[in-house]
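May I ask you to review the protein record following this short note?
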Amino acid sequence: MKFFDYDGPLIRFLNRMADLMWLNILAMLCCIPIVTIGASFTALHYVALKIVRDEEGYITRGFFKSFRQNFFQSTVLWVILLMVFAALGMDYYLIVRQGMEVGSVHRSLIVALGVLILFTAVMVFPMQARFSNPIRVTIKNAFIVAVLQFPKTFLMLLLLAVPVVVCLLSWRLFPLVFLFGLSVPAVLSAMLYNKSFLRMEAQFMEANPQEETEDPDRIFRDGPEEPDGTIPEAQHDTAGRLG
């Protein structure tokens, strides 16, 4: 039966599950030092987008390629997010736990700011995985995409919350989270933002068709390598209109 052939749907499904399992284990292990969580999440989304676009090769090679390539900026982004969330957490503690008197407007502003930062955090590592920019530009573009693609960003946030909820319901389900808790949400998220990224890439390439400029903003192009071993890159300026 073709269903059980080497190229049949059953074998393809099992191979995909094995890839997701191994990707999840890599991401979980690389998150253990805590400080490397940013680089691990960036590598996770790099491979996840490759899977969605049917461009993946070796999972391990692609993961650590992105991990090394983006380690510094991803770590800085992660530290910035930790500091911002720590500051928001302190505000919450002072307002709620200590009974600090604040106006409803102030309280609403803190909540709104927290939501916007959370949405930006959801998108910042996919942006870092696919685009090479200064940190401030990556954060700005992540914010723009997160706001313009609000429904998709909200779904990505829900996907990230699923493993946490599963563990809270029963720690017996932790092995399932360890095997699929990061990779499956990452691939499903990549399905959500892939079209937006493709539109952005098309706009960037149309605006700057591979000419050499002094603009430091670049888009990764994982195409054939040049004779000197480098990967051809093109320039871009902003997140563009996603429509």
User: Anything to note?
Assistant: Residues 33 and 112 are 31 Å apart (CA to CA). The first strand starts at residue 131 and ends at 132.
